[in-house]
Every structure is written in C-alpha cells, then in structure tokens.
Design a protein that fits this description.
Radius of gyration: 24 Å
Order of helices and strands: EEEEEEHHHHHHHEEHEEEEHHHHHHHHH
Number of helices: 17
CATH class of the largest domain: Mainly Beta
Distance between the termini: 61 Å
Bound molecules: 2-acetamido-2-deoxy-beta-D-glucopyranose, zinc ion
Mean pLDDT: 87
Largest sheet: 3 strands, antiparallel
Low-confidence stretches: none
Oligomer: single chain
Length: 444
C-alpha cells in the first residue's frame, strides 16, 4: 500500500509487525526538532480550568489576566485573538450547551478521565463538523486522523451519549472518530506535569512507541495559537533508524504491557520489554531496611552512579542484571524512593535526601534512555537539594561546604546538559531557567 505522507527528513516505510515505521532519511542531530504539529483538538484537565487560556494554554499571570466567555462563563481566554481562534475551531458549537451538558447527571456519573475524554471528543466533533468537505484530503489533519488505525477500546456508550452537542455530521462518524481517539490522545505537559490532553494526528501516524525512545514530545504554548507539539531528537539518529517516542512513562515497568494491550492494542517489543520478559515476575521489594540498603548498594554499584558523577552520564545497558536487583523494577520501589527523596529534601533532611536521590538517579539511568527529560529534572532537584544543604547549615565546615558545592556543580552541569537537549517548553519559568538561576548563585 502506498504511504502518501511526506515529511522532511523522514520516510514512512513498511514495518515487520506494525503498519509502518518512520525512519530518518538524513542524520538527525541530538536536540533538533523533527516535526512540529498544531493540536487538532485539545482540552485542559479540570484542575487547570480558569488558570490557563482555553485557546493557547498559556498560564494566567499578572501580565496575562484571563477573560471569561460571556456565553457560558466556563471558558477563559487571554484576549480576543485566542477567543476568536477557539470560537471558530469549536467553541461556537459548544458554548450554548456546555453548562447543561456538564451539569447533567450523565456527565456527573462519568469517571474523571471519561469526563475529559468526553470534552475532548466534543472539541474534536465540533472541529470536524466545521471542516466537512475536506475530509478526504490525505494530508489534512482530519484525513490523517481518519487514516489512523482504530484502537481496541470499544466506544464507551456513556461518553458518547452524553457528548454535549449534536454535530451536523453523520452519526456513524462518531464511533469511527472515537475508536481512533483513545489510542491517539496525548497528555499535554508543561515541565512534565500534565495540564491537558490533545490530538496530534500527524505525530500519531508517524511515530511508534518505544520504552527506550530516541525522541520525545514537548509542548509549546504561544499567544493566539493552538498548542504545538514538537518532537525532539534525544540523541543523534542515523539515517534508516526508526524514530520512536514514549506513549507513556517507561518507568511503568509492571503495568505498561497491560496498558498497551488495553489502550493501544499492541505489545511493545522494544529491547527493554524483551529484557523485562526474561526477568520473569518482578518480586516485591523487601520491607526490612537492612535488605533495602543492600539493594540500594547493588543498584548504585551496578550503574556506578558515584564514580561517573565527576564526568558525563554513562549509558547503562539493561543486561546482566543481578537477580537480587530485580525488585527495583517493582513500581512500589520507584514510587517509595521518589517519595523519600522529595520529602527528605523539602523537610531539610539533606543527608537522607542526597542518599535516596542518588539511588533514584541510578534507577533512572537504568530505566530511561540517555538525555531523558525526567533524568534532567531529577538532576536539577539533586543540585537544588545539595545547594540548600550548604545554605541551610550555617555550622558547616569549610571543607564540607566546598565538597557539597562541588556536588551541586556536577548535578547542575549534568542536568543542564539534558534539559538543554529537550529545550524550552511549557510555561515560561521552568527547569532551564531555574538551572540558570542556581548557576548564577553558585558562581556569581
Ligand atoms: C508499534 O510497534 C509494535 C512492535 O514493537 C507493533 O506491534 C505495533 O503495532 C506498532 N504500532 C504502531 C502504531 O505502529
Ligand atoms: C512503599 O510504601 C507503601 C505505602 O507507604 C508501603 O506499603 C510499602 O511497604 C513500601 N514499600 C517499600 C519497598 O518500602
Ligand atoms: C530549597 O529551599 C527553598 C527555600 O527554603 C525551598 O523553597 C525549596 O523547596 C528547597 N528545594 C529543595 C529541592 O529542597
Ligand atoms: Zn491565549
Ligand atoms: Zn462560551
Ligand atoms: Zn517496550
């Protein structure tokens, strides 16, 4: 079957098990932008409503006060440009019914993720109904969207039936759209915190998932424009290599295959999933603290996290993992370790914080691919923690202070390198800016 989509520097070619794969046609360098796509439809999560512009997703600030839509009182905009953009795209179809819809019993009976789906579906349907006539254009967002493979999710009747407005499109189209919706629905994030969901048909059509991806999506919010997804190369990609992105957090070791089955209708066969399969069932982490300490030690030795802290970050292959370490792949393990780190750091238990934070870094090196943004943000948190330690302890002797500052420098430079690859994204003040601020405190 011919593959009509043509994108600069990418070729879609046949894939042994999947429908197709996007491969690089030229060398793509680390940190470069592979594609940039506007959201075809997007919706804010409930907790962000009123805090961001519903049109461009920029956050409210002293310089950017939001104005309410006078029709429904439930959509907020920076200005008339954003409002007009949203009105034309979908809001004119939704405004009148919005409140009746969201206060209905049917809507209230939905789980919160279903509410979000229902609203996003509303935006999508309104959007689609405004552009009928262009449906068969292969390169239009809708044409690409309709060319996506349907997911395994059976359209949820409730979500469909409470769908607030009646679109002037074939009722049959609704399930067709919906079946392509669950598996092609991206979480939109700012500094890795989810703020909304959106549909980016071209990105769905091009990129398959990998748990060790060589690219990742960042989101850009700018005045008067829809949210934009940019796919960034996390490392150099050579010609003929497949370009992959994460559909979900690779740290979800135990649940990810299940999520793929249920939501996406495939099993991931990446190298990491292959290794994981050879490990067999993952044992729960031990409850006793001497045993946990011994596992932490093994993990740190395996990744040599302490020795590289002076140089660059190594790539740790997920091979030859000692049996005693299997439990680090248990999701409880990473959850508890992150909680311990962040609690200790904010409560000022700096030694515990740096200790658990270093173990967590070792785990990140094991599970995430090089330059993964989560690792960059964690390194920045470690740098801030070590910095707070030097500030918070006035009785610290000179040597300890110098040694701690040296650690701040190492964490910060490793973290900045990764954050620079991912580049500026999301809201204005982010980890990159924080890293610069800390750097100027460190070396005034
Ligand atoms: C992604 O790749 C897997 C194999 O790793 C395959 O089973 C799946 O169908 C692919 N998905 C898409 C959307 O191409
Ligand atoms: C992690 O925390 C949960 C809840 O606090 C606890 O039940 C569990 O035993 C902890 N696991 C480990 C490995 O510490
Ligand atoms: C560092 O200290 C500041 C000021 O006390 C605090 O707001 C911040 O949360 C601390 N950061 C970390 C990572 O502990
Ligand atoms: Zn706006
Ligand atoms: Zn309105
Ligand atoms: Zn995988």
């Amino acid at each position: 079957m011919p593959i009509p989509i043509q994108i600069k520097n990418i070729r879609l070619q046949n894939h042994p098990s999947a429908r197709s794969q996007a491969v690089a046609t030229v060398p793509i360098t680390e940190a470069s932008k592979i594609i940039s796509v506007d959201a075809f439809a997007a919706v804010l999560i409930a907790s962000e409503k009123g805090k961001r512009c519903d049109g461009c997703f920029q956050i409210k600030s002293e310089d950017r006060l939001l104005r309410k839509c006078t029709g429904c009182g439930s959509y907020w905009y920076c200005d008339s440009i954003c409002q007009n953009m949203d009105w034309k795209a979908h809001h004119k179809k939704i405004c009148k019914q919005y409140n009746k819809f969201t206060s209905s019993n049917a809507f209230h009976s939905l789980a919160s993720h279903e509410k979000l789906e229902s609203l996003l579906l509303d935006h999508l349907l309104s959007q689609v109904s405004s552009i009928t006539g262009r449906v068969d254009e292969e390169m239009s967002p809708l044409g690409i969207f309709m060319s996506l493979l349907p997911g395994p999710t059976v359209p949820n009747r409730d979500v469909l039936s409470v769908c607030g407005f009646e679109p002037p499109i074939q009722p049959d189209t609704v399930p067709l759209l919906y079946s392509r919706f669950g598996n092609n629905n991206f979480a939109i994030h700012s500094h890795l915190t989810t703020i909304g969901h959106g549909i980016f048909p071209l990105a769905s059509r091009l990129f398959n998932h990998s748990c060790i991806p060589n690219a990742a999506a960042r989101y850009i919010f700018s005045a008067g424009r829809p949210v934009r997804m940019e796919v960034i190369a996390l490392r150099n990609i050579s010609p003929d290599s497949e370009i992959t992105i994460p559909y979900l957090d690779p740290a979800l070791y135990q649940t990810r295959q299940q999520i793929f089955d249920l939501t996406y209708g495939f099993r991931c066969t990446c190298f990491s999933c292959h290794i994981l399969e050879t490990l067999g069932p993952i044992p729960a982490p031990p409850a006793s603290s001497p045993e946990l300490t011994s596992i932490e030690k093994t993990l740190r030795q395996f990744t040599q996290v302490e020795s590289f802290l002076d140089g660059g970050l190594p790539v740790i292959p997920q091979t030859n993992i000692p049996l005693s370490m299997y439990c680090v792949f248990h999701e409880n393990y990473i959850t508890n370790l992150s909680e311990t780190f962040s609690k200790a750091s904010h409560e000022g238990h700096y030694n515990l914080a740096l200790d658990s934070g270093t173990t967590l870094l070792a785990l990140y090196l094991l599970i995430y691919p090089p330059n993964y943004p989560q690792t960059g943000i964690h390194l920045l948190e470690l740098a801030k923690t070590a910095w707070n330690m030097t500030v918070g302890d006035s009785g610290m002797d000179y040597q300890t202070e110098q040694a701690t500052k040296a650690r701040v420098r190492v964490f910060l430079s490793l973290g900045r390198r990764i954050l620079t690859v991912f580049g500026p994204e999301g809201d204005e003040d982010g980890p990159l800016r924080e890293a610069e601020t800390l750097q100027s405190l460190l070396d005034p």
